[in-house]
């Protein structure tokens, strides 16, 4: 049963299929994907470490995130637009400015770590970006050398 869905879970094949359909691809590898997914799409086994600090520079999380990103990005690096593929951009984290308390400084070491892992895995000439609601969270989730896209949606 574990192999039945494997052809649908091959990210490289999925991106290649998008290219065959003349689509561009924006990769959002995470490790945190979005709040609509249970635990942000991260694996629950991370919580076996009772001192775990997710989405931070905490070594246990950083090592797990790096292993994950090396695996995912390694499968995709040859599919970048400038190499003839459909990938036009890669998101560094997801809405990181909303993670934390009020205006308490965000863990920029963590964001820079994700950027360096992304670049070390071949994404040097592809647009890297972050995305936050800048009306509420200003530039709290932004880092140097990465485009910050602005979500100006007003929440009521």
Radius of gyration: 16 Å
Briefly note the structural class of the backbone.
alpha/beta
Fold-level CATH name: TIM Barrel
Number of separate domains: 1
The CATH class designation is: Alpha Beta
Multimeric organization: single chain
What's the pLDDT, averaged over the residues?
86
Total number of helices: 4
Strand segment tally: 4
GO molecular function: hydrolase activity, hydrolyzing O-glycosyl compounds
InterPro entries: GH, Gly_Hdrlase_35_cat, Glyco_hydro_35_CS, Glycoside_Hdrlase_35
Keywords: Glycosidase, Hydrolase
Protein name: Beta-galactosidase-1-like protein 2
Q: How would you summarize what this structure contains?
A:
GO terms for molecular function: hydrolase activity, hydrolyzing O-glycosyl compounds. The protein has 4 helices and 4 strands; from the N terminus they run αβαβαβαβ.
Report on this structure:
- The chain is of the alpha/beta class.
- The protein has one domain: Glycosidases (TIM Barrel, Alpha-Beta Barrel), CATH 3.20.20.80.
- 29% of the residues lie in helices and 12% in strands.
- A 4-stranded parallel sheet has the order 1-2-3-4, with helices on one face.
- β2 (87-91), α3 and β3 form a beta-alpha-beta unit.
- α2 (59-76) runs parallel beside α3 (108-120).
- The protein is globular, with a radius of gyration of 16 Å.
- It starts with 10 loop residues before the first helix and ends in a 6-residue tail after the last strand.
- It holds the Pfam family Glyco_hydro_35.
